[in-house]
Design brief:
Pfam families: adh_short_C2. The chain has about 290 residues and is an alpha/beta fold. It is built from ten helices and seven strands.
């Protein structure tokens, strides 16, 4: 039974001495996750495909006290050879990891279905979408999440062995787009993110026997290179309120913040009684847009 002082926020959500890995950690939601973890004491390795982005993010956002943000790689999570190299490099530096945040992802080709003409929509879809585009989106947003997790499972299992039952975990960054029925013109992206959501559930069940939890965060609109196509000199993006308000289906009338993403990550990282869940952090969009 806990004493009241044990329930202070700094005790409940401290990740001091945690070793974390964040894919896609150089910008956007991945960087928000890395910042939230490092700010609360974790050593956070961020990886991605662009060395300069990783170094700039680490230099700009590493905390001054206990936590760290450390560039790892660069590595491409869609290549087994890179995942093996990443696992080997991590194993040379750390005996275990406590948390993997699988945040690497890409958007997709678009074909707006805002027409009542089947002929017109067929024209748009065949002109703007490709088999290759669908495959690349699924490969990055679903398949790579699976192989990244599998590549790091031994280190995660070692994290549980060093920190106690079901302490090590994976947080898969999916999307509200994988839960809603509105295609948003992104049939390939939304269906891939639906696959990401279900993959997290499959892994949560199957990897429990290895004492590793798996949960997912389904973000709504957050500022990132995916949503704004750019980052500033600190690898941060800006998504103005009016852009969100134009969409007409976001009750909060703004994008999500770094703080709100960090809160979600810390909750799932520390609460061992949560496994196999999908937490939507979407400003209430799924109260307005039909879900599945």
């Amino acid at each position: 039974m806990a004493e009241t002082h044990h329930l202070r926020a700094e005790k409940l959500f401290s990740v001091k001495d945690y070793v974390c890995v964040v894919t896609g950690g150089g910008s956007g939601i991945g960087l928000m996750c890395a910042q939230g973890l490092a700010a609360n004491g974790a050593k956070v390795y961020i990886t991605g495909r662009r060395q300069e982005v990783l170094e700039r993010a680490a230099k700009s956002h590493s905390p001054d006290d206990d936590g760290q943000i450390i560039p790892l790689g660069p590595y491409d999570v869609t290549k087994k050879s890179d995942l093996e190299a990443m696992s080997k490099e991590l194993s040379s530096k750390e005996k275990h990891i406590n948390l993997l945040v699988a945040a690497a992802g890409i958007s997709s080709e678009k074909a707006d279905p805002d027409t009542e003409s089947a002929t017109e929509f067929k024209k748009r879809a065949f002109e703007n979408e490709t088999f290759e585009g669908w495959s690349e989106t699924y490969n990055t947003d679903v398949t790579a999440v699976y192989f990244t997790t599998v590549a790091l499972l031994p280190l995660l299992q070692a994290g549980t062995e060093s920190h106690g039952h079901l302490s090590a975990s994976v947080i898969v960054i999916s999307s509200m787009s994988g839960i809603m029925r509105h295609a948003q013109g992104h049939f390939s992206y939304n269906s891939a993110k639906g696959g990401t959501v279900h993959l997290a559930k499959l892994m949560s069940s199957e990897f429990t026997k290895m004492k590793v939890r798996v949960n997912s965060i389904a973000p709504g609109y957050f500022p990132s290179e995916m949503t704004t196509s750019e980052s500033d000199h600190k690898q941060k993006s800006e998504l103005p309120d009016e852009k969100i308000q134009e969409k007409g289906h976001v009750p909060m009338e703004r994008a999500g913040s770094d703080e709100e993403m960090a809160q979600a990550v810390l909750f799932l990282a520390k609460n061992r009684y949560v496994n196999g869940e999908v937490v939507a952090v979407d400003g209430g969009v799924l109260n307005v847009v039909a879900g599945r």
